[in-house]
Amino acid sequence: MPAPAKPALDTSTTAGNYFVSNYPPFSFWKQDDVPEVMAAIDREPKPGTPLGIYAHIPFCRKRCHFCYFKVYTDKDSSEIRAYTNALLSELKTYAEKPFIGGRKPNFVYFGGGTPSYLSINQLQELTDGMKALLPWDEAEEVAFECEPGTLTDHKLKALRELGITRLSLGVENFDDHILEINGRAHRSKEIIRAYNYAREVGFPQINIDLIAGMVEETDENWVATVAQTVEVAPDCVTIYEMEIPYNTTIFQRMKAEGKLVAPVADWETKRRWVDYAFGELEKAGYTVTSAYTAVKNPEKTKFVYRDRLWEGADLLSVGVASFGHIGGTHYQNYHEFDPYVERVNRGELPIYRALTPSDDERLIREFILQMKLGHLSLGYFEKKFGVDPKVRFAEPIQRLKDWGFATIEGDQFMINREGLLQVDKLLHEFFLPEHRNKRYA
Ligand code: SF4
Question: Reduced to 3 states, what is the DSSP secondary structure of residue 307?
Fold first, then answer.
């Protein structure tokens, strides 16, 4: 009998989201559901639920052409101060609510934007204020995203002293021409300088982010970028396949020029590049631990923020446009600077939209997010949700098995390398029908 046909995969890169970071899709979160998160904040937490904090720092030196985040490149120091004060006021309101239930944060994450855009003083004030409200002394991980060109030896030292344990460098590529035409603010010299300082300072974990398929990326250059990554030998390497969401400068240009296909490599090439990078990293002793990451020492190098979130932790998220999850309800803050700051200054929580997933949607969410690890425990889901995932997901599991991407080995549902390289596409097979083929964000 012939093997069942594999799914029709996108070939050229067209506009839209590839990466699935949450479920149900953001486009289904509604303003009408904000009272549900307000009610969740006033309830005691479910016993055993870890608490994390996410702080969004929306400032960057320049806007990268592929960026789809809410970022500002024109704010002066008084506006930045007003913003960090608003973050602290927002956190203070949350810190006094019943959902905290005496918990201290298990993990803290600074994302953006560019958290390292803040000055040492601004960072000290912000983190002192955060610790005074919800102490970090029990946090397993404090992660911090950086743009290499914003880092000095003094700032790196200060970051370590503030308690940062996982430093993540947004390198993306080591070639100056590629960095420049993609609108990145930093150059390769700054990467190496920042990396070497960071090593000297002694962060427990340094991660390097790369993107496969930036504008004008070539086989030759990608090989060189991977070789350079292996040479600097970070603890963790994270590789994303380039996607072109609608709110990127690249898409705006495509629209103006009437083009449907983005000026970046097709999906097959991007998968081949990630596969090549994983292969080279494995040769250098790394272990691939998810669809996007390879780590030098899997025993030591964990990513607590990701793993807790993918197991349904509470995420108290503060800052403009940030996404959180409290007591079973997803929420997102207002996504423009002034409305966000004004609401916080009026003593209101700046929540714009929310959604409370049903039990089945929570099951789908955790299942698809954990699939990105390449293996998940079926027993974990049965115990947590009281549902046998082999029965609930019988059809999509069979499809993935027929396509040669998945196997079941004892308690483990395993996705192989070929499946992992396109996992975000495959996750849609597990979505409820009403969420398929709909705009994601
Ligand atoms: S540094 Fe990151 S957040 Fe800032 S513009 Fe570039 S991609 Fe966006």
Answer: helix
For the chain, the domain total comes to: 2
Q: Is 420 in the pocket of ligand 1 (CB under 6 A)?
A: no
Q: What is the model's pLDDT at position 8?
A: 60
Cβ atoms within 10 Å of 390's Cβ, excluding its own: 14
Flag whether 18 is in a domain.
Answer: no
pLDDT band at 3 (very low <50, low <70, confident <90, very high): low
Question: Are 285 and 401 in the same domain?
Answer: no
pLDDT tens-digit readout, 90-105: 999 999 999 999 999 9
Residues 182 and 62 placed together within one structural domain of the fold: yes
From ligand 1's centre to the CA of 13, what distance in Å?
Answer: 20
Q: Please work out whether the CB of residue 213 comes within 6 Å of at least one atom of ligand 1.
A: no
| 3-state helix/strand/coil string of 220-256 | HHHHHHHHHHHHHCCCEEEEEECCECCCCHHHHHHHH
Q: Is the CB of 145 under 6 A from ligand 1?
A: no
Q: Is the CB of 63 inside a 6 Å radius of any atom of ligand 1? A: yes
Domain span at residue 75 reads 26-308
Domain match, 81 and 154 both: yes
